Amino acid sequence: xxxxxxxxxxxxxxxxxxxxxxxxxxxxxxxxxxxxxxxxxxxxxxxxxxxxxxxxxxxxxxxxxxxxxxxxxxxxxxxxxxxxxxxxxxxxxxxxxxxxxxxxxxxxxxxxxxxxxxxxxxxxxxxxxxxxxxxxxxxxxxxxxxxxxxxxxxxxxxxxxxxxxxxxxxxxxxxxxxxxxxxxxxxxxxxxxxxxxxxxxxxxxxxxxxxxxxxxxxxxxxxxxxxxxxxxxxxxxxxxxxxxxxxxxxxxxxxxxxxxxxxxxxxxxxxxxxxxxxxxxxxxxxxxxxxxxxxxxxxxxxxxxxxxxxxxxxxxxxxxxxxxxxxxxxxxxxxxxxxxxxxxxxxxxx
Amino acid sequence: xxxxxxxxxxxxxxxxxxxxxxxxxxxxxxxxxxxxxxxxxxxxxxxxxxxxxxxxxxxxxxxxxxxxxxxxxxxxxxxxxxxxxxxxxxxxxxxxxxxxxxxxxxxxxxxxxxxxxxxxxxxxxxxxxxxxxxxxxxxxxxxxxxxxxxxxxxxxxxxxxxxxxxxxxxxxxxxxxxxxxxxxxxxxxxxxxxxxxxxxxxxxxxxxxxxxxxxxxxxxxxxxxxxxxxxxxxxxxxxxxxxxxxxxxxxxxxxxxxxxxxxxxxxxxxxxxxxxxxxxxxxxxxxxxxxxxxxxxxxxxxxxxxxxxxxxxxxxxxxxxxxxxxxxxxxxxxxxxxxxxxxxxxxxxx
Lengths: 350, 350
Known about the structure:
By secondary structure, the first copy, chain A, is α+β, with helices and mostly antiparallel strands. The first copy, chain A, is built from eleven helices and ten strands.
């Protein structure tokens, strides 16, 4: 698979189906693993890094559970290509910063991917559409099992999986759920909800993980502690919290409808109207307007569009995607024009 | 003609044709006349006021030049009906304040109308689409001639036509041109232009005449002095000024196109997008967005709509028009919803 061929489709998890897909965009399981005979990436020299990369690469190619997997080495990769992979949530911003001995392995439908030599030797992720952490865990667990069989993994009977950062030690697992909470934001309840999440030792992040701001009413909630609990227990804990947030978002949507339906309908339809007609539009405005359109679609206020098309636009309108589609570097102004054109094409087609 | 039947059409001058109709909405000639045997309206008692009203009414009905004229007395007229006539520019806000002995005579296509017992006994106006003051003057002059033959008009060989306010004495004529100057506003040249107009002894007003603010980039320019010049001379003076303003607005439009066409196209298309999708919209926002759409249409940026439809919407979306169409009183919120609905129907039809 060529990197460019990713442009021909969007990730499977954007399909907009699965449990509670009106509020939960996606569920993600990430596992951190390290080889037992090598220093952690930040401590390893170039030679050691290459050895780790070669060893993992070799095994990944043979795995049954990674259908049509391709491994992309970051060394020599164009910066737009790197950003493109970040925008697709296939690798972290941090991973894209340096290139030496780093790679990312991508399964053809982008359900599973593996970052090699990020903070840990192996950072595997499995993403599912909707509220479905257990299914993501099942897939990740199988990949992990067969990979562990082939590679000597750093594991302590007392501490569990050993990781570069102690917060990941134990299961090495992080479960994350990407939530769309426009009604909690509009009814000004979101700060209370986020404070409650923080108190319960969960973290909230923006669309692109650690260090990114929440925007367009999207919030990624994940477990903070990985030590001292079995994976299923951790997932059940997250699920319990997410179920409560979903209930509160649903209640807030009801409140919006019953208190002032015309105002809600106005805001949603104007958002669609602007997206369908703008000639210049920023990434930030796009996310905010698409958030309203998604809400309108979920609540039956906008009917002539499907959820997948909206989900896809969040990714396709990102800077590197626009430049890959246009096959050249674009200035910020040129991107704003191309973005508006793409959105019009996608939304006026229907 | 019933007052309600005015709802079945819009005024002839909204057709959006005539010289320079891309910048000049309409040209209006107003003549102030008084009967020589009666006190001015503000000095007259009820009985005198009624005598004046009856005398003028009787003559107007017989005039050849007022096709299908109907006279509406203001006494007992519903406040929404009065506002409706003001919104159509058929009578002044001032005329609508009091009702006794007041009336307005309306020619069936709304080209000519006569307010009776406003500030003067007779305030006649003739409106033409586009930049066409001389044609308006020709029509007004014929109506005035035949009316003067029938009624004794207050005229002094030294001062000319005598009027309640000395500023109108002389010809009793005011020529007004309604201009749409969005490019001069957007390029921040409008203050300089308005200052120049004021220095030349012309006045600038908003959409609804004396005391109203300019909004949506509309400016009504008219002569301040009525004394000491023949009518044709006054009109030629206004025309000279208007020709200069038209040239400056055209230059400003060229500047907008050449400097930043995408920004202009974005603003115009977004305005249309919002108008086509909003569910709640105020009168002020409507005027501002329609102004952009009119500019877009005039500059060939928006092609699927004709100028008459845009011109009409400025009038049809006014509060009394919405209530007349809906056949009941509407609260401000209800009007904002009805207005959005009407605009969607008119703009999505095309």
